[in-house]
Design brief:
Distance between the termini: 85 Å
Strand order of the largest sheet: 1-2-8-3-6
Strand content: 15-25%
EC number: 2.7.7.65
Structural class: alpha+beta
CATH topology of the largest domain: Alpha-Beta Plaits
Radius of gyration: 34 Å
Enzyme class: transferase
Bound molecules: guanosine-5'-triphosphate
Number of strands: 13
Helix content: 40-55%
GO molecular function: diguanylate cyclase activity
Catalytic activity: 2 GTP = 3',3'-c-di-GMP + 2 diphosphate
Low-confidence stretches: none
Protein name: diguanylate cyclase
Protein backbone atom coordinates (compact mmCIF):
# COMPACT_ATOMS: atom_id res chain seq x y z
CA UNK A 1 0.00 0.00 0.00
CA UNK A 2 1.73 3.19 -1.08
CA UNK A 3 0.72 6.83 -1.11
CA UNK A 4 0.50 8.15 -4.66
CA UNK A 5 -0.91 11.63 -4.07
CA UNK A 6 -3.20 13.70 -1.87
CA UNK A 7 -6.90 14.25 -2.42
CA UNK A 8 -6.41 17.88 -3.49
CA UNK A 9 -3.81 16.88 -6.09
CA UNK A 10 -5.91 14.04 -7.47
CA UNK A 11 -8.64 14.22 -10.11
CA UNK A 12 -11.31 12.68 -7.81
CA UNK A 13 -14.37 14.80 -7.01
CA UNK A 14 -16.12 15.30 -3.68
CA UNK A 15 -19.55 14.76 -5.29
CA UNK A 16 -18.62 11.17 -6.14
CA UNK A 17 -18.07 10.26 -2.48
CA UNK A 18 -21.22 8.93 -0.81
CA UNK A 19 -20.49 10.38 2.59
CA UNK A 20 -20.23 13.96 1.29
CA UNK A 21 -23.15 13.90 -1.13
CA UNK A 22 -25.48 16.94 -0.74
CA UNK A 23 -23.20 18.39 1.93
CA UNK A 24 -21.02 21.49 1.94
CA UNK A 25 -18.63 20.42 -0.86
CA UNK A 26 -16.20 23.32 -0.34
CA UNK A 27 -15.85 22.52 3.37
CA UNK A 28 -15.33 18.80 2.62
CA UNK A 29 -12.77 19.55 -0.12
CA UNK A 30 -10.82 21.80 2.27
CA UNK A 31 -10.89 19.21 5.06
CA UNK A 32 -9.82 16.34 2.82
CA UNK A 33 -7.24 18.27 0.79
CA UNK A 34 -4.19 16.81 2.54
CA UNK A 35 -5.57 13.32 3.05
CA UNK A 36 -3.42 10.71 1.33
CA UNK A 37 -4.60 8.75 -1.68
CA UNK A 38 -3.01 5.28 -1.52
CA UNK A 39 -2.80 2.55 -4.12
CA UNK A 40 -3.29 -1.17 -3.48
CA UNK A 41 -2.41 -3.90 -5.93
CA UNK A 42 -4.84 -6.75 -6.51
CA UNK A 43 -4.79 -9.09 -3.48
CA UNK A 44 -2.99 -6.54 -1.30
CA UNK A 45 -4.56 -5.74 2.08
CA UNK A 46 -4.87 -2.41 3.82
CA UNK A 47 -2.00 -2.26 6.31
CA UNK A 48 -1.89 -0.62 9.75
CA UNK A 49 -5.56 -0.74 10.60
CA UNK A 50 -4.75 -0.38 14.30
CA UNK A 51 -5.82 3.27 14.21
CA UNK A 52 -9.38 4.39 13.64
CA UNK A 53 -9.57 5.70 10.09
CA UNK A 54 -12.07 6.00 7.29
CA UNK A 55 -11.13 4.44 3.95
CA UNK A 56 -13.03 5.66 0.92
CA UNK A 57 -12.71 3.66 -2.28
CA UNK A 58 -11.89 6.05 -5.14
CA UNK A 59 -11.34 3.41 -7.83
CA UNK A 60 -11.26 -0.39 -8.04
CA UNK A 61 -12.98 -2.49 -5.36
CA UNK A 62 -12.30 -3.76 -1.84
CA UNK A 63 -13.44 -6.97 -0.25
CA UNK A 64 -14.12 -6.53 3.47
CA UNK A 65 -14.16 -9.53 5.80
CA UNK A 66 -15.65 -8.75 9.19
CA UNK A 67 -13.86 -9.08 12.54
CA UNK A 68 -10.87 -11.15 11.54
CA UNK A 69 -8.86 -10.56 14.68
CA UNK A 70 -11.41 -11.32 17.35
CA UNK A 71 -12.04 -14.86 16.18
CA UNK A 72 -15.59 -13.69 15.45
CA UNK A 73 -15.18 -13.89 11.66
CA UNK A 74 -18.39 -15.42 10.37
CA UNK A 75 -17.53 -15.61 6.71
CA UNK A 76 -19.36 -12.41 5.87
CA UNK A 77 -17.59 -10.67 3.01
CA UNK A 78 -18.85 -7.47 1.49
CA UNK A 79 -17.67 -5.67 -1.60
CA UNK A 80 -16.99 -1.96 -1.37
CA UNK A 81 -17.14 -0.03 -4.62
CA UNK A 82 -15.98 3.48 -5.69
CA UNK A 83 -17.62 6.23 -3.62
CA UNK A 84 -18.33 3.87 -0.71
CA UNK A 85 -16.42 3.78 2.53
CA UNK A 86 -15.23 1.41 5.26
CA UNK A 87 -14.34 2.15 8.87
CA UNK A 88 -17.08 4.59 9.93
CA UNK A 89 -17.85 2.49 12.96
CA UNK A 90 -14.24 2.29 14.10
CA UNK A 91 -14.03 6.09 13.76
CA UNK A 92 -17.19 6.59 15.82
CA UNK A 93 -16.23 4.23 18.63
CA UNK A 94 -12.52 5.07 18.33
CA UNK A 95 -11.53 1.43 18.12
CA UNK A 96 -9.15 -0.31 15.74
CA UNK A 97 -10.69 -1.46 12.49
CA UNK A 98 -11.07 -5.23 12.87
CA UNK A 99 -12.01 -5.92 9.27
CA UNK A 100 -9.64 -7.35 6.72
CA UNK A 101 -9.75 -5.10 3.66
CA UNK A 102 -8.25 -6.51 0.48
CA UNK A 103 -8.15 -5.05 -3.01
CA UNK A 104 -10.09 -7.15 -5.54
CA UNK A 105 -8.27 -5.30 -8.33
CA UNK A 106 -5.80 -2.42 -8.45
CA UNK A 107 -7.56 0.14 -6.28
CA UNK A 108 -7.08 3.66 -4.98
CA UNK A 109 -8.29 4.66 -1.52
CA UNK A 110 -8.62 7.94 0.29
CA UNK A 111 -7.46 7.60 3.89
CA UNK A 112 -9.20 9.98 6.31
CA UNK A 113 -7.98 10.17 9.91
CA UNK A 114 -10.64 10.02 12.64
CA UNK A 115 -10.03 13.65 13.77
CA UNK A 116 -10.87 14.92 10.30
CA UNK A 117 -14.08 12.86 10.15
CA UNK A 118 -15.11 14.20 13.57
CA UNK A 119 -14.38 17.78 12.50
CA UNK A 120 -16.54 17.27 9.41
CA UNK A 121 -19.36 15.81 11.54
CA UNK A 122 -19.13 18.86 13.85
CA UNK A 123 -19.12 21.36 11.02
CA UNK A 124 -21.46 19.81 8.44
CA UNK A 125 -25.02 18.66 9.05
CA UNK A 126 -24.94 17.00 5.62
CA UNK A 127 -21.99 14.76 6.55
CA UNK A 128 -23.60 13.88 9.91
CA UNK A 129 -26.89 13.02 8.16
CA UNK A 130 -25.14 10.89 5.49
CA UNK A 131 -23.20 9.06 8.16
CA UNK A 132 -26.38 8.31 10.14
CA UNK A 133 -28.12 7.06 7.00
CA UNK A 134 -25.18 4.84 6.17
CA UNK A 135 -25.03 3.36 9.65
CA UNK A 136 -28.79 2.84 9.75
CA UNK A 137 -28.57 1.00 6.42
CA UNK A 138 -25.77 -1.20 7.79
CA UNK A 139 -27.72 -1.98 10.97
CA UNK A 140 -30.75 -3.00 8.92
CA UNK A 141 -28.60 -5.21 6.68
CA UNK A 142 -26.91 -6.77 9.73
CA UNK A 143 -30.30 -7.42 11.37
CA UNK A 144 -31.66 -9.02 8.21
CA UNK A 145 -28.59 -11.25 8.03
CA UNK A 146 -28.98 -12.17 11.69
CA UNK A 147 -32.60 -13.15 11.11
CA UNK A 148 -31.63 -15.26 8.08
CA UNK A 149 -28.96 -17.00 10.15
CA UNK A 150 -31.36 -17.60 13.03
CA UNK A 151 -33.85 -19.18 10.63
CA UNK A 152 -31.13 -21.31 9.09
CA UNK A 153 -29.85 -22.28 12.54
CA UNK A 154 -33.36 -23.24 13.61
CA UNK A 155 -33.78 -25.27 10.40
CA UNK A 156 -30.55 -27.21 11.05
CA UNK A 157 -31.45 -27.63 14.71
CA UNK A 158 -34.77 -29.14 13.68
CA UNK A 159 -33.06 -31.34 11.09
CA UNK A 160 -30.61 -32.60 13.69
CA UNK A 161 -33.59 -33.74 15.76
CA UNK A 162 -35.19 -35.81 12.99
CA UNK A 163 -34.33 -39.37 12.10
CA UNK A 164 -33.33 -39.51 8.43
CA UNK A 165 -34.84 -42.93 7.65
CA UNK A 166 -38.26 -42.65 9.27
CA UNK A 167 -38.83 -38.90 9.61
CA UNK A 168 -39.67 -39.44 13.29
CA UNK A 169 -37.96 -37.47 16.05
CA UNK A 170 -34.63 -38.99 17.05
CA UNK A 171 -32.94 -39.80 20.34
CA UNK A 172 -31.34 -36.32 20.56
CA UNK A 173 -34.82 -34.78 20.44
CA UNK A 174 -36.02 -37.20 23.11
CA UNK A 175 -33.08 -36.40 25.39
CA UNK A 176 -33.89 -32.70 25.01
CA UNK A 177 -37.66 -32.85 25.33
CA UNK A 178 -38.63 -35.77 27.56
CA UNK A 179 -37.22 -34.28 30.79
CA UNK A 180 -39.21 -31.10 30.02
CA UNK A 181 -42.38 -33.11 29.34
CA UNK A 182 -41.90 -35.02 32.59
CA UNK A 183 -41.33 -31.80 34.56
CA UNK A 184 -44.37 -30.16 33.01
CA UNK A 185 -46.56 -33.23 33.75
CA UNK A 186 -45.43 -33.28 37.40
CA UNK A 187 -45.79 -29.48 37.63
CA UNK A 188 -49.29 -29.42 36.16
CA UNK A 189 -50.44 -32.60 37.89
CA UNK A 190 -51.23 -34.06 34.47
CA UNK A 191 -50.66 -37.63 33.27
CA UNK A 192 -47.98 -38.52 30.74
CA UNK A 193 -47.83 -41.91 29.06
CA UNK A 194 -45.17 -43.58 27.00
CA UNK A 195 -45.44 -46.52 24.63
CA UNK A 196 -42.28 -48.39 23.71
CA UNK A 197 -42.56 -50.26 20.42
CA UNK A 198 -40.20 -52.91 19.06
CA UNK A 199 -40.64 -54.71 15.77
CA UNK A 200 -40.74 -58.48 16.20
CA UNK A 201 -38.08 -60.82 14.87
CA UNK A 202 -36.68 -57.97 12.87
CA UNK A 203 -33.36 -59.68 12.45
CA UNK A 204 -35.21 -62.51 10.67
CA UNK A 205 -37.09 -59.96 8.59
CA UNK A 206 -33.81 -58.43 7.43
CA UNK A 207 -32.26 -61.82 6.83
CA UNK A 208 -35.26 -63.07 4.82
CA UNK A 209 -36.12 -59.96 2.81
CA UNK A 210 -32.91 -57.93 2.81
CA UNK A 211 -31.84 -54.80 4.60
CA UNK A 212 -33.60 -52.46 2.16
CA UNK A 213 -36.88 -54.23 2.80
CA UNK A 214 -36.08 -53.86 6.50
CA UNK A 215 -35.67 -50.12 6.02
CA UNK A 216 -38.96 -50.01 4.17
CA UNK A 217 -40.65 -51.88 7.02
CA UNK A 218 -39.27 -49.35 9.52
CA UNK A 219 -40.68 -46.53 7.37
CA UNK A 220 -44.05 -48.30 7.16
CA UNK A 221 -44.18 -48.72 10.95
CA UNK A 222 -43.19 -45.06 11.41
CA UNK A 223 -45.98 -44.00 9.06
CA UNK A 224 -48.46 -45.98 11.12
CA UNK A 225 -47.32 -44.14 14.24
CA UNK A 226 -47.38 -40.66 12.68
CA UNK A 227 -50.75 -41.32 11.07
CA UNK A 228 -52.45 -42.60 14.21
CA UNK A 229 -51.52 -39.94 16.73
CA UNK A 230 -52.98 -36.62 17.89
CA UNK A 231 -50.98 -33.49 17.08
CA UNK A 232 -49.87 -33.23 20.71
CA UNK A 233 -48.44 -36.78 20.69
CA UNK A 234 -44.91 -37.43 19.48
CA UNK A 235 -43.34 -40.44 17.81
CA UNK A 236 -39.61 -41.06 18.23
CA UNK A 237 -37.18 -43.54 16.73
CA UNK A 238 -35.48 -44.66 19.89
CA UNK A 239 -32.93 -47.01 18.37
CA UNK A 240 -32.56 -49.52 15.51
CA UNK A 241 -36.02 -51.06 15.29
CA UNK A 242 -37.29 -49.56 18.51
CA UNK A 243 -39.73 -46.67 18.47
CA UNK A 244 -41.53 -44.73 21.12
CA UNK A 245 -44.70 -42.73 21.38
CA UNK A 246 -45.17 -39.99 23.97
CA UNK A 247 -48.71 -39.16 24.97
CA UNK A 248 -48.97 -35.99 27.05
CA UNK A 249 -52.09 -35.49 29.15
CA UNK A 250 -53.05 -39.15 28.63
CA UNK A 251 -53.69 -41.66 31.39
CA UNK A 252 -52.66 -45.29 31.24
CA UNK A 253 -56.12 -46.58 30.25
CA UNK A 254 -56.25 -44.39 27.18
CA UNK A 255 -52.58 -45.14 26.41
CA UNK A 256 -53.38 -48.87 26.35
CA UNK A 257 -56.23 -48.22 23.89
CA UNK A 258 -53.83 -46.22 21.69
CA UNK A 259 -51.19 -48.97 21.94
CA UNK A 260 -53.72 -51.66 20.95
CA UNK A 261 -54.70 -49.53 17.95
CA UNK A 262 -51.05 -49.09 16.94
CA UNK A 263 -50.37 -52.83 17.37
CA UNK A 264 -53.29 -53.64 15.07
CA UNK A 265 -52.34 -51.05 12.45
CA UNK A 266 -48.72 -52.22 12.37
CA UNK A 267 -49.99 -55.78 11.82
CA UNK A 268 -52.07 -54.48 8.89
CA UNK A 269 -49.34 -52.19 7.52
CA UNK A 270 -48.45 -52.59 3.86
CA UNK A 271 -44.68 -52.70 3.66
CA UNK A 272 -44.53 -52.77 -0.13
CA UNK A 273 -47.02 -51.15 -2.46
CA UNK A 274 -45.59 -53.11 -5.39
CA UNK A 275 -47.96 -56.12 -5.75
CA UNK A 276 -45.47 -58.10 -7.84
CA UNK A 277 -43.34 -58.56 -4.74
CA UNK A 278 -44.22 -61.06 -2.02
CA UNK A 279 -45.87 -59.25 0.88
CA UNK A 280 -43.85 -59.61 4.04
CA UNK A 281 -45.65 -58.24 7.02
CA UNK A 282 -44.49 -56.99 10.34
CA UNK A 283 -45.72 -57.18 13.90
CA UNK A 284 -44.63 -55.31 16.96
CA UNK A 285 -44.55 -55.71 20.70
CA UNK A 286 -45.58 -52.70 22.76
CA UNK A 287 -44.93 -51.75 26.38
CA UNK A 288 -47.06 -49.05 27.99
CA UNK A 289 -46.16 -46.98 31.05
CA UNK A 290 -47.53 -43.83 32.68
CA UNK A 291 -45.57 -41.41 34.78
CA UNK A 292 -45.69 -42.24 38.49
CA UNK A 293 -45.39 -39.61 41.24
CA UNK A 294 -41.74 -38.61 41.69
CA UNK A 295 -40.62 -40.65 38.68
CA UNK A 296 -38.10 -39.11 36.27
CA UNK A 297 -37.70 -39.63 32.51
CA UNK A 298 -35.31 -42.57 32.97
CA UNK A 299 -37.75 -44.26 35.32
CA UNK A 300 -40.60 -43.79 32.86
CA UNK A 301 -38.58 -45.28 29.99
CA UNK A 302 -37.46 -48.18 32.21
CA UNK A 303 -41.09 -48.96 33.13
CA UNK A 304 -42.17 -49.01 29.47
CA UNK A 305 -39.11 -51.07 28.58
CA UNK A 306 -39.93 -53.63 31.27
CA UNK A 307 -43.49 -53.89 29.93
CA UNK A 308 -42.13 -54.31 26.41
CA UNK A 309 -39.83 -57.07 27.61
CA UNK A 310 -42.86 -58.90 29.02
CA UNK A 311 -44.72 -58.43 25.72
CA UNK A 312 -41.79 -60.11 23.94
CA UNK A 313 -41.65 -62.80 26.56
CA UNK A 314 -45.38 -63.40 26.28
CA UNK A 315 -45.16 -64.25 22.58
CA UNK A 316 -44.79 -60.82 20.85
CA UNK A 317 -47.40 -59.05 18.68
CA UNK A 318 -49.16 -57.73 21.78
CA UNK A 319 -49.48 -54.86 24.24
CA UNK A 320 -48.40 -55.14 27.87
CA UNK A 321 -48.85 -52.44 30.49
CA UNK A 322 -46.41 -51.65 33.31
CA UNK A 323 -46.78 -53.93 36.33
CA UNK A 324 -46.78 -51.38 39.12
CA UNK A 325 -50.14 -49.95 38.11
CA UNK A 326 -52.12 -53.11 38.47
CA UNK A 327 -50.21 -55.21 40.97
N1 LIG B 1 -33.10 -52.70 7.87
C1 LIG B 1 -32.75 -52.17 9.04
N2 LIG B 1 -32.53 -52.99 10.06
C2 LIG B 1 -32.17 -52.44 11.24
C3 LIG B 1 -32.03 -51.06 11.39
N3 LIG B 1 -31.67 -50.83 12.68
C4 LIG B 1 -31.62 -52.02 13.31
N4 LIG B 1 -31.92 -53.01 12.44
C5 LIG B 1 -31.93 -54.45 12.68
O1 LIG B 1 -32.87 -54.81 13.64
C6 LIG B 1 -32.49 -56.10 14.13
C7 LIG B 1 -32.82 -56.17 15.59
O2 LIG B 1 -32.59 -57.47 15.97
P1 LIG B 1 -32.76 -57.98 17.46
O3 LIG B 1 -32.38 -56.87 18.42
O4 LIG B 1 -32.03 -59.26 17.55
O5 LIG B 1 -34.27 -58.18 17.67
P2 LIG B 1 -35.34 -58.94 16.79
O6 LIG B 1 -34.74 -59.79 15.73
O7 LIG B 1 -36.33 -57.90 16.34
O8 LIG B 1 -35.99 -59.86 17.84
P3 LIG B 1 -37.09 -59.49 18.92
O9 LIG B 1 -36.95 -58.00 19.20
O10 LIG B 1 -36.74 -60.31 20.11
O11 LIG B 1 -38.41 -59.81 18.35
C8 LIG B 1 -31.01 -56.27 13.85
O12 LIG B 1 -30.84 -57.28 12.90
C9 LIG B 1 -30.61 -54.91 13.26
O13 LIG B 1 -29.66 -55.05 12.23
C10 LIG B 1 -32.24 -50.23 10.25
O14 LIG B 1 -32.12 -48.98 10.28
N5 LIG B 1 -32.60 -50.83 9.10
Amino acid sequence: MKQITTFAASAYRIDDLQLFRDSDAALAARSLAHCPVVQLQQGESVSDTSRARLYIVLSGALSVTADTRTGMADGTVSKVLPGESVGEQSVLDEEANLSLMTALETSELLVVEAEIVWRLIDESNGVARNLLRLLSFRIRAANAQLRRRQKLGEFYRQMSMIDGLTGLYNRAWLNDLLPEMVASAHGGGKPLSLIMIDLDHFKNFNDSHGHLAGDQALRAAAQVLSGALRPSDCAVRYGGEEMMVLLPDTNVKVAVVVAERLCERIRQAVVFRDMRLPLPHITASLGVASLLPGQDDHGLIASADAALYRAKDGGRNQVVVQETLFS
